[in-house]
Design goal:
Pfam family, one (chains A, B): MmgE_PrpD_N
CATH topology of the largest domain in chain A: 2-methylcitrate dehydratase PrpD
Order of helices and strands of chain A: HHHHEEHEHHHHHHHHEHEHHHHHEEEHHH
Largest interface: A-B, 68 and 67 residues
Structural class of chain A: alpha+beta
Organism (chains A, B): Pseudaquabacterium terrae
CATH class of the largest domain in chain A: Mainly Alpha
Number of helices of chain A: 22
Strand content of chain A: 5-15%
Largest sheet of chain A: 4 strands, mixed
Oligomer: homodimer
Protein name (chains A, B): MmgE/PrpD family protein
Family (chains A, B): Belongs to the PrpD family.
Helix content of chain A: 40-55%
Strand order of the largest sheet of chain A: 6-5-7-8
Chain lengths: ~450, ~450
């Protein structure tokens, strides 16, 4: 019985609310390796590019219009837009935009997209507080540590149950980050986590609708509000995370408590963050990666007679659409991914535009692609071989796609991804300046300068 | 296995998101009996009194201070205060205050406190829209119907799992009420319910902290925001409530779908709403009721030699504190409840003040009370007998306490409860005017007049 399981689980539950609160409140600034620090910059850069990139999307237009009914004060920036809103609404809106293209970051152990809730809340509050870049990055590392550790202790049962784990753990990460920025002590930080624990956000049923990116946004807003409430003396249970009728046991049947505290302050979950190089489901990435490599080896689309893919059955099950009619369908077509990689050498959001998906040369190349199932090949791998008009055959085998933990995106590739997204919104000059600001964020005396760069010029 | 149960349950799931959305969007104004209409007025009056009463509580001070960091525009009223805030924050704050004393209303089948989320969201939005009282009452009836029907289909498993059902169903009720006020069509109303479905609020672990009353407040804010998003074209799953990874199957193992739709538009859940006559746990109510009746029969505290209670074992298990040291402990003391009923003839929030709980005559009478367990007596009943100094013995047996469905509070008693709470905040004159406005709410051309009466005079 569920009730017995809960009680049994609780007997083993350490006081993780207090432990995590103490960690967030007292861990020293930059108390981690250079590698962790570097990953924090990359996480922030990648998040900011995604938020800027989707700033003019229909979901953002709708959300901004709704928020403006509240007549918000101009306290904080909406990345990629000229409007300013109150900090809670800025957290909401930046959380929505950064996840709109499903192109942000992934903590692979839990499939949490950690920056959306945490960075969105932290930047809005930091901008209002006129905090330093150092303080923001500290908040980002600690906030992501909290949400991913809570994810670790519940995954996969919590996700299987139906929760969109990015939003359901995100309010905790956002609360932790904001508590840190506000300088709350351990007790007040525990209150912030406690208030946030009552606000898990997100159902998997929403995938494919605007409410999916709403999840990290609403989690960001909930976490930020929770920290403000705690700062002003609002109270919550001191055992909100671990108690029998607390957060974890209410939203998950798995509660591996040790995940919350193992190597706390030594191992940082942001080290395991990855960034999507391609704007589509992760299962197509190995094929696109191989196709880009073929192109880099000199294979030209016009010389191709046929292309043969060998992939795990899951790839075709999820992305076997042979004749996608538009951009959305193309995200579920391994055939389109292959053609895009060969023709453009990339597969960002622009390469999934409707007019690209239906362009003659793209359609023609796509029709030359055949796929064979081979379950001896790993789900994360792909074999791609091109037969050319002159009879030559060129093959690329990808064991770990670019963007995986084994083959992380280079800093240059991350900047190229950022530019792809930001240039249409901000222009090339401002995009370059914003990249530089994100790169040097830890040394910025005020994050306001960075936020200002993410605002398009007038007109 | 949980996963199999979910799939099995889904096969039987009718499209309740669409059905409820159509009901909320198209049911005619005042399409119910006079009894339902009367209960709607009572629900609103009782809610407003609770919100005004707690307007100066510490939880409200903290919440208001946190919200004011966002520098909200003065769009809507906070009942019992002079501050005005944006409508989403007004929904949050009125939701918090109305549940702070745990003295509001109860839908007994689900122990949902329905007005907190629904009325708080509806009044804030109605005030902003300059809506009529008729529109507000329609929204209240329909919103409460949605949250309580969703509660019916999941109770008790959902509550047992750890959810504070008032908040976890409240965002749906608030979304329905606000969608109705905005005049959304069936599709947009379904989107509002869908967005709200991703935001269940509330853990039972928070009971005893300020986060408990935060739950209806956060649910009110979530529902209101969801309706605004839907109005501006934001999308959600059309099957957000009933899909396998939708709301009900994610937060509950019981999904009795028919509860959502049985007699929809014929039976209204607000008919089953009850109001707490006494500001403490419901299990003490029969004893207080009996004690008040003894007083009304002429029994005077100073003549009492001893009092004997015969109650179900649950009463002493939950409220057996013999020497409460303060107001909070007194809420868990059936002995104090008995003494308060005999001395004051009532047991509102003032009768649980620290200085009352420790007053000599109250302590002296409390010590004359003994309690005996008798499990042949119903949990909702009590036998109270007083032995007087002259040797006489007077007994009162209560089978159904005042405030239960069998013995509802009279309109006069509801007004007295309102006055008890509102007069210390608004003064007697304004309180009387506000009661009259709540009584005549369905005929008010604008709810703004009512909201203005709930604002204390300057100084």
């Amino acid at each position: 019985m569920a009730r017995n399981t809960q009680v049994a689980a609780d007997h083993a539950a350490p006081p993780i609310t207090q432990i995590l609160a103490g960690f967030v409140a007292t861990h020293p600034s930059r108390g981690w390796s250079n590698a962790v620090e570097h990953e924090a910059q990359r996480t922030f850069l990648n998040w900011a590019g995604c938020a800027v990139g989707a700033a003019t999307h229909e979901a953002m237009r709708a959300a901004l219009a709704a928020v403006q009914v509240l007549q918000p004060t101009a306290q904080a920036s909406v990345l990629g837009r000229r409007e300013q809103v109150d900090i809670a609404s800025a957290a909401l809106l930046n959380g929505i935009s950064s996840h709109t293209f499903d192109f942000d970051d992934t903590h692979l152990l839990t499939i949490i997209h950690p920056a959306g809730p945490v960075a969105s809340a932290a930047l809005a509050l930091a901008e209002h507080l006129d905090a330093s870049g150092r303080a923001l990055i500290d908040a980002l590392v600690l906030g992501i540590d909290v949400s991913c550790r809570i994810g670790n202790l519940m995954y996969p049962e919590h996700y299987d149950r139906g929760w969109h784990i990015t939003g359901s753990t995100g309010s905790l990460g956002a609360a932790a980050a904001c508590a840190r920025l506000l300088g709350l002590d351990t007790h007040a930080t525990a209150m912030a986590l406690g208030i946030a624990a009552s606000q898990p956000v997100g159902l998997r049923e929403q995938f494919g609708t605007m409410t999916k990116p709403f999840h990290p946004g609403a989690a960001a807003r909930a976490g930020l509000t929770s920290a403000l409430l705690a700062q002003h003396g609002f109270t919550a249970s001191t055992r909100a995370l671990e108690a029998p009728r607390g957060y974890a046991q209410t939203v998950s049947t798995k509660c591996a408590w040790h995940e919350a505290t193992d190597e706390l302050g030594e191992r940082f979950e942001i080290s395991f963050n990855t960034y999507k190089p391609f704007a589509c489901g992760i299962v197509i990435h190995p094929v696109i990666d191989a196709s880009v490599q073929l192109r880099e080896q000199g294979v030209r689309a016009e010389d191709i007679q046929r292309i043969e893919l060998r992939v795990h059955s899951l790839v075709l099950e999820l992305t076997g659409k042979q004749e996608p009619a538009n951009g959305l369908e193309a995200k579920f077509s391994v055939y389109h991914g292959c053609a895009a990689g060969l023709i453009f050498g990339r597969a960002g959001e622009p390469q999934f535009a409707d007019e690209i998906v239906t362009r003659d040369d793209v359609v023609a190349l796509r029709r030359k692609v055949t796929a064979t199932v081979d379950d001896s090949i790993d789900e994360a791998a792909a074999h791609v071989s091109a037969t050319l008009a002159d009879g030559r055959r060129v093959q690329v085998v990808v064991e770990h796609a670019i963007g995986s933990l084994k083959r992380p995106m280079s800093d240059a590739a991350l900047e190229a991804k950022f530019s792809d997204q930001a240039e249409p919104v901000l222009g090339a000059d401002r995009t370059a300046q914003l990249i530089a600001a994100c790169r040097g964020i830890a040394d910025l005396p005020s994050v306001r300068a960075l936020a200002a760069l993410a605002r398009p010029a007038a007109g």
